[in-house]
Amino acid sequence: GIQVEQSPPDLILQEGANSTLRCNFSDSVNNLQWFHQNPWGQLINLFYIPSGTKQNGRLSATTVATERYSLLYISSSQTTDSGVYFCAVGYKLSFGAGTTVTVRA
Amino acid sequence: DARVTQTPRHKVTEMGQEVTMRCQPILGHNTVFWYRQTMMQGLELLAYFRNRAPLDDSGMPKDRFSAEMPDATLATLKIQPSEPRDSAVYFCASGLATGGRETQYFGPGTRLLVL
Fold first, then answer.
1. What domains can be seen in chain A, in order of their start residue?
2. Each residue of B56-80: b (16+ CB within 10 Å) or e?
């Protein structure tokens, strides 16, 4: 199956800081999603982004399919951004191990 | 506000008992996926359906797990008999398949504890 690697595994931010999360994948895909798992366990769709760039408020994502990586940008982080961010690829969604983000007030 | 619903949200049971988890996909979606999340294994696919037909259940232990879609509004995941190692959060997700490109929407999960 497709291998998905996310980095960094953990990220501690001061409120207001910007950050970049990375997702590398081992094979070409036509399906890539970013999720945020909040402290209550809910998986929330952030982006469906098999290629290109998208923005939604303070979050944006870029996928370079030919180089097999995707980046998630968090700008002006808030405490509500805390949680685990997952990258998942492929039709049957192979998940990475996630990046745990902690935003401190 | 369309969303995937799952019941029960929490389940505590004793080893050997049958467990049934239910999922109502978003109306109009034609694919349903079951995932399991544990600390050790992370999120892993158990089974998925398209137009109610099972397409892949290779992620499930066949001897004790079964997944079905009795109709378009209900998907079930059963464990019989349950074991302590089945303790996990089980997520259902649904999507609308269009040429292999789709967004999956996840339910809130069923948190299962087998004692």
1. 4-104 (2.60.40.10)
2. ebeebeeeebbbebeebeebebebe
How would residue B103 be classed by pLDDT, with cut points 50, 70 and 90? confident
Burial class from Cβ neighbours inside 10 Å (0-12, 13-18, 19+) for residue B52 reads middle
A41–B109 C-beta distance less than 8 A: yes
Q: Is A67 helix (H, G, I), strand (E, B) or coil?
A: helix
| Contact yes or no for A92 and B45 at CB 8 A | yes
Candidates A31, A43, A97; nearest CB to B102: A31
Could you tell me if A45 lies within 8 Å of chain B, comparing CB atoms?
Answer: yes
At B17, which CATH number? 2.60.40.10
The H-or-E segment that residue B88 falls in is strand B88-95
- Residue by residue, pLDDT tens for chain A (105 residues) are 889 999 999 999 999 999 999 999 999 888 999 999 998 999 999 999 999 999 999 999 999 999 999 999 999 999 999 999 999 998 888 999 999 999 999
